[in-house]
Write a structure and sequence with these properties.
Layout lengths: L14 H15 L3 H18 L1
Helix pairs in contact: 1-2
The structure holds zinc ion.
The site of zinc ion has 7 residues, from helix 1 and helix 2.
């Protein structure tokens, strides 16, 4: 596990980043472009709010 390890070399997404990324990846795999875009937008908002 490398959940809370701070890293400057690699992006170390927090739990919520990973969750959003996972959902976006699932949506992409399922060809659900609208959901993928929604997840990308959610990621953008999360990055601004939490990082
Ligand atoms: Zn995050």
């Amino acid at each position: 596990m490398y959940d809370e390890t701070p890293s400057t070399a690699l992006p170390a997404p927090c739990a919520q980043c990973r969750e959003i990324k996972r959902k976006r990846y699932e949506a992409v795999r399922q060809g659900d472009r609208r959901r993928a875009e929604a997840m990308a937008a959610a990621m953008g908002r999360h990055q601004r709010a939490a990082h």
